[in-house]
Amino acid sequence: MGLLRNLKLRNRAYVCAYNSFRFAARLRGDLSEFAPSIAETIQSVGDELASLARDSCPAEADRRQLIDGLEGALRALGLSDAAQVHIVSQLAPRIMAGEPASATREAWTRMAV
Known about the structure:
single chain; mainly alpha; 6 helices; globular
């Protein structure tokens, strides 16, 4: 049963990261005024995976599956090894802690933005 759960978590993280990066790249390619920057895309993927870790992954091993899924998505996107390491090193602590960046802001700040 643990193997199936690991596969599901890894796949959810993969799909989340892959689709987010592809969609953002497509918007940037179309020169849309609403296209998020690469940094914004990385932060939103980090928030999504940290929320998933908080809500669905009580154990550290489960959260590591999310990081594995993120790494798989970055490989599938054809990013360089250096870019993959940089992105994973930014997001892994947030995923392991299960704390999205948006959750740490004050409530009035979220409403003002």
